[in-house]
């Protein structure tokens, strides 16, 4: 789940091809990080230890079972335990630093905010829910994308905000290669092809395609508005008749 890179070089909205710097990140587990106070004193702690403490405290202070309940609605089996939460906290730091094009050297300060501020505590859980849902959509075929957005009340907004960015990333990274796409009503092999993406690359692609704000807002909307993301598993993932597999 943790991306071993300091920066993804891309331009969101236009190009989503991933170029990774080879293991130059300073954000890996086990590295010492320093929190600089106003008096310019530096308190260094073990990063991995701080994240475990934060994860434990968050699990005690936020009803994470609510997040798991929403995940099950989408047939996502991720369990929000200390290990998963700790990894997501580290990932959130990296993702946020990429958005800001900065080096995140204040992990522990952000971690303390996650414990002390209710709004910040909720943010990490909104982020987890949104990220898990986007990973699910990333692994759908374009036919399944079509079925998913057909269920939504505001189809145009859903397509623009989620479907088009994902399909653009599919194209540029060679995951889905459209052929004969200008032939109206054609049922093409690429349209029903289900992407096969390794877990690590899947995480990298979601981070490259969407900002942290987009991810956490999706999670927030799913929790606050029960019908924001209408989902019918049987309809979306139902196999297409063989006659539609013609190239």
What does this structure look like?
Helices cover 54% and strands 4% of the residues. It contains eleven helices and two strands; from the N terminus they run ββααααααααααα. Strands 1-2 form a two-stranded antiparallel ribbon. Mean pLDDT is 75; it is low at 1-11, 13-48 and 242-247.
Topology:
Blueprint lengths: L31 E5 L5 E5 H15 L2 H10 L8 H19 L6 H10 L1 H21 L3 H9 L4 H18 L16 H4 L6 H11 L2 H13 L8 H4 L11
Antiparallel strand pairs: 1-2
Helix pairs in contact: 1-3, 1-4, 2-5, 4-5, 5-10, 6-7
Distance between the termini: 36 Å
Q: What share of the residues lie within helices?
A: 40-55%
Order of helices and strands: EEHHHHHHHHHHH
Main sheet specs:
2 strands, antiparallel
β-strand number: 2
Gross geometry: globular
Number of helices: 11
Q: Unreliable stretches, pLDDT < 50, 5 or more residues?
A: 1-11, 13-48, 242-247
| Rg (C-alpha, Å) | 20 Å
Q: How many structurally independent domains?
A: 1
Strand content: under 5%
> Strand order within the widest sheet?
1-2
Structural class: mainly alpha
Features:
247 residues, 11 helices, disordered N terminus, mainly alpha, disordered C terminus, 2 strands, single chain
Summarize the structure.
The chain has 247 residues and is mostly helical. Helix content is 54%, strand content 4%.
């Amino acid at each position: 789940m943790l991306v071993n890179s300091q920066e993804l070089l891309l331009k969101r909205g236009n190009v989503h091809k991933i170029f990774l710097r080879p293991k130059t990140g300073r954000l890996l587990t086990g590295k010492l990080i320093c929190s600089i106070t106003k008096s310019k004193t530096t308190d260094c702690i073990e990063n991995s230890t701080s994240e475990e403490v934060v994860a434990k405290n968050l699990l005690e202070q936020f009803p994470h079972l609510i997040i798991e309940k929403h995940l099950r609605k989408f047939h996502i089996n991720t369990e929000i335990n200390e290990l998963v939460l700790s990894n997501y906290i580290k990932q959130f730091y990296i993702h946020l630093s990429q958005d800001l094009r900065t080096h995140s050297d204040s992990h522990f300060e952000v971690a303390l905010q996650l414990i002390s501020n209710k709004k910040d505590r909720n943010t990490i859980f909104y982020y987890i829910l949104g990220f898990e849902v986007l990973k699910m959509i990333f692994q759908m075929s374009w036919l399944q994308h079509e079925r998913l957005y057909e269920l939504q009340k505001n189809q145009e907004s859903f397509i623009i905000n989620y479907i088009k960015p994902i399909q653009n990333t599919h194209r540029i990274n060679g995951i889905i290669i459209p052929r004969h796409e200008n032939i109206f009503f054609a049922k093409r092999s690429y349209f029903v092809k289900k992407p096969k993406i390794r877990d690590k690359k899947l995480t990298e692609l979601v981070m490259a395609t969407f900002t942290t704000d987009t991810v956490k807002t999706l999670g927030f909307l799913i929790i606050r508005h029960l019908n924001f993301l209408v989902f019918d598993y049987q309809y979306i993932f139902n196999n297409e008749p063989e006659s539609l597999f013609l190239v």
